Amino acid sequence: MAQEKPELNILSNDISTAQNKFEKKRYQKILPRHNIRKRCPPQGTRRNNDVYVTSSSNFKSQLGQCRKLIEEGEQEIVIHGLGAALPQAINLALQLQDLSHNTWCVSTGTDTVDVVDDLEPLSDDVDFDTRVRPNSCIHIKLVKKP
Amino acid sequence: MQRRVMSHNPKRFPRRLREAHIDMQLKSGIPNVVKTPSRKYRRRPQNLLQEYNRRQRRFVWLETHIWHAKRFHMVEKWGYKLANFPNDKSFRACYRACKEHCLLQDISYFSCIEIVGELDNILKGLNQLTSTECGLTFGAKCSLQGTRECSTTVFRVKAYPNGVIGTVKFMWKPPGNDSRRTLWVWCHAAYYSELFDELVKVFSLKNIHDCEEMDVDCDANEKSESENSLVSKIPKYTSTDCDVTVSQLKDTLNRFRLTGPLSQPILTDLLRVIDPDKMSVSVTDSTMENSRLSWAHSLLDQPETVEILKKKRDFWDKMKLFTEPSQLPPHSVIPLTVSDPRYHMPQIRTKLVSDSEGQSGIWPLKTIPADFVQDNGMWEPSIRDKSRSEKLSTAELNLIKSDQLVPGACDFDNLAPASYLPVILIQNPGFRPQFTKKGGGGSSWGGGWDVVAPAGWAMPLWLGMAWRGARVGGLRASASMAREAGTLCLPPDSAAGQMCDAAERAAKTDAFFRKPPAKRPNYIKLGIPTPFHRPWKELIRDWNDSENTPSTFCVLRSIAALQNLNSLLQELRNLSSSALNEKLLEIGLEVSSFLVAVNVRMCKRGNLCENSTLCLPLMEDVEKLKENGGFMGPVEPSHVDIYEDERRSARETHQKQMIRLRKKRKAAKDKNSAETLKVLKETTDLKVKEERALMQRLWLPTEIGNLRNGCSREVMGFLENGAFSYKEACSTGQGYVALTALLKFCSHWKTVAPSKYPLILVRSPFSYQYSFAELSIIL
Q1: Chain A partners of B355 at a C-beta cutoff of 8 Å?
Q2: Interface touch A54/B442, C-beta < 8 Å
Q3: Which of B179, B440, B688, B759 minimizes the number of CB atoms within 10 Å of its CB?
């Protein structure tokens, strides 16, 4: 398809005129030789009282979920958050503490997990590859005060 | 129940009336009534099987057909009888299964073609069918080791970018000592024969199956055995100019698709991987009553194989620690040898949950080691056959079970002879997120496993999975999954897609004219010339100059071009108008016959549906939206129906004619002139047919005028499908727009951009209301 060839230039122009880091970031998103696919992060326990917060989860519904757990007589709730969802997880824990009038004590643990991005080849001469990057996570344990 | 039994069976009449009745029946000709055999007779296994074989003659059944037929609506599609949707409520349930649990589908209608030969010879032929511009091809470096399954788009011989056949998946057999390589190409049933015809052309294939002659001396027993084996039935073709053999493995392999996080615990629980330590013990232990050497025992002869088997066993134990299939390397192929799943069935239908306590030891698993893929029986037709013939029938297993003192508890491992089957697991990483909105679904949506098993093993595996809590879906579930993910299947420029569209169009037109006229939407007034199909050819015609109108259209598949377009659309707001013009010029003006696949996402209220028109917004629409955020969109003025009077007058004359003919028929009947009556009846039928054709033409004119400027907003393209998406929490759809239209949209949109994402107008075929929707390109 000869008529499509000139379009390739757009990309290279883009890179050279990249002025800020946002544009660079965008360039990384459309790496020409690979597709980037983010793998699911590793999950620990999946008990009833484990709440995993992600940036796309609904805050209000998760708050309701935690309140329901409290009403059901749960003695301990663990809220997990990873990367960009850290503030949301902290916010959730603080809101819960507020709602329960400080009858629950909060203990926080931080950790780092390795998350994996898969680089899927877009052309024949490249192979699959992975990119491992460390990401911060938080585990907030809410325990009912005796 | 037969209605009016009495008139069919004279013995049910009172005796005094019987004679007269028989006389009358004789005069009118006794109907040829075939007595239905009794149910008891019909249900005898032999007769039942015969009946099943008769019913399979026209449309092939999958191995799980009877299980599905009891629970699903079946449709005849692509030469198969396939499950469409279950009898219980399923839309939301299937979505939830995909997202949180496990959705199970029998996709054995994906057929496999095996190509054996020297690597260079195979690639030389197959490269004529693919293009490097569309991504990976058959010779992709990442696929040659046999550790990953890849997919590619196939075209007719050297016809790219036209003549698309469809997307196929392929996997190479891992390289062995032999220089000959084996390739499996998995192809959808809709374009299987088309692809095979191209392969015949490329390799100049000749059938060799007929050359195999039966040995005359072999006794009856052996003969029946060879008849049972599937190996001898596989159609084989050989190339006349190079050393390449092609076999059609259609219907000799089963492929199941599990989607959703629960597929991981289901598979790790279902598949008990062969344990060489235990097996060698059972071989030496001759005291066992039912001991028998299965095909898998021959694997223990070689020490290297035993090592690999042990490694695989350890690896499979670790697999239990993963909670989701999308935590594993994408598209990885894991061949396993597992024991009969019926030996480990749960007592009742249960739902498994993943109970992983951290994956510290194995995370992150970057790739599946290459030596894991070695030595799998799945690639050998003889082993596939052996595993099938060594399989105990369910009746035999039930006999063993019934001998047990404690009902229910039965340790088949010790009681029944060992039986193993080879399987191949293929990881499916799920769909890439397509929609522009932040957090619009995780990347892992739709991830799971594909299980490939030899023929004869479908039901044991199927029941094993269904009993562990997998929810079964049909074709409708596949379609809605693809829509949620924002992808399209069966493209409109392929023969398979066009056939599918034509069938859909015929069915919808038929349904439209079955309605009374007052209940039909007037598509002329609505300004929708093609409510039941998508006129791509006319769209391309109208978006081009009259001089160099391309005769065909095709979908833009070049990855580089699509990525450029995508980045252009995303950066529209930041680009200066001079830079934009430059880029538009660069993209070129000759790209005239291309369609671009797009995702459409409704901004406000309203529902998308298939065949909706995608239109360019006018400047005033966008300005109104900018002023008033609640502006729903412009309204199309009602068009003038020029055929209304013609329809009315035609109807009136027709009715008058019918009355006249009825009178004539009555007169002929009274005169007992059969000849005239016959002629009159024929005339009536002809008139009715003519009237119907005329009315259809007056309701839905066949000639399409100017499609592009037929309405108050310029038409860019059409939607292939659309409905409410649970994942996006709004209405979404997929369709195609003309590339020329998209480029015009880019330059158009730049001047006023009220929203972060490019907005277009969408109109359903039965509504005057345009609505704003976000546009993004399907990569």
Answers
A1: 46
A2: yes
A3: B179
Whether B139 and A124 lie within 8 Å, measured CB to CB: yes
Note whether residue A26 is domain-resident.
Answer: no
Asked if B552 has any chain A CB less than 8 Å from its own CB, the reply is no
Give the 3-state secondary structure of residue B82.
strand
Q: Any idea what the CATH number is for the domain that residue A54 is in?
A: 3.30.110.20
Tally the C-alpha atoms within 13 A of residue B473's C-alpha that lie toward its C-beta.
Answer: 24
pTM of the model: 0.84
pLDDT score for A24? 47
A6 with B587: Cβ contact below 8 A:
yes
Answer yes or no: do A32 and B355 touch at CB < 8 A. no
Residues of B in contact with A35 (CB under 8 A): 432
User: Is B285 exposed, middle or buried, given 0-12, 13-18 or 19+ CB atoms closer than 10 A?
Assistant: exposed
Phi and psi based region of residue B158 (left: phi greater than 0; alpha: psi -120 to 50; beta: remaining): left
- Give the tokens for residue B146: 């046999």
Q: Which residues contact B7 (CB under 8 A, 6 or more apart)?
A: none
Distance CA B46, CA B52 (A): 10
Q: What is the ipTM of this complex?
A: 0.74
| A126 assigned to some structural domain | yes
What's residue A4's pLDDT?
A: 38
Q: What pLDDT, in 10s, does the model give residues B29-51?
A: 766 667 888 899 989 988 888 88
**CA-based nearest residue to B140, from B180, B176, B183:** B183
Q: Convert B198-239 into a string of H (helix), E (strand) and C (coil).
A: HHHHHHCEEECHHHCCCCCCCCHHHHHHHHHCCHHHCCEEEE
With H, G, I as helix, E, B as strand and everything else as coil, classify residue B630.
coil
How many whole angstroms separate alpha carbon B74 and alpha carbon B56?
13
Q: Which of B132, B171, B437, B567 to mutate to test the interface with A (most CBs of A within 10 A)?
A: B567
Q: What's the length of chain B? A: 779
Q: Verify whether the Cβ–Cβ distance B148 to A37 is below 8 Å.
A: no
CB within 8 A of B252, min separation 6: which ones? B112, B230, B234, B381, B384, B454, B455
Subunit contact B326:A9, Cβ cutoff 8 A: no
- Nearest by CB to B329, which of A118, A121, A126? A118
Strand ranges (E), B520-593: 554-555
The structural domain count of chain A equals 1
Which residues sit opposite B452 in a β-bridge? B255, B424
pLDDT digit string, tens, across residues B585-623: 666 555 678 889 999 988 888 889 999 999 988 888 888
Sign of CA dihedral B36, B38, B39, B44: negative
Range of the domain at A107: 46-144
Contact of B307 with B390, CB cutoff 8 Å: no
Q: Does any domain span residue A40?
A: no
Which of B757, B745, B150 shows the shortest CA–CA distance to B440?
B757
Beta-carbon contacts of B403 under 8 Å, excluding residues fewer than 6 positions away, are: none
CA distance B534 to B540: 12
Cα(B338)–Cα(B323) distance, rounded to whole angstroms? 21
| Total count of residues recorded for chain A | 146
Whether B53 and chain A come into contact, CB under 8 Å, resolves to no
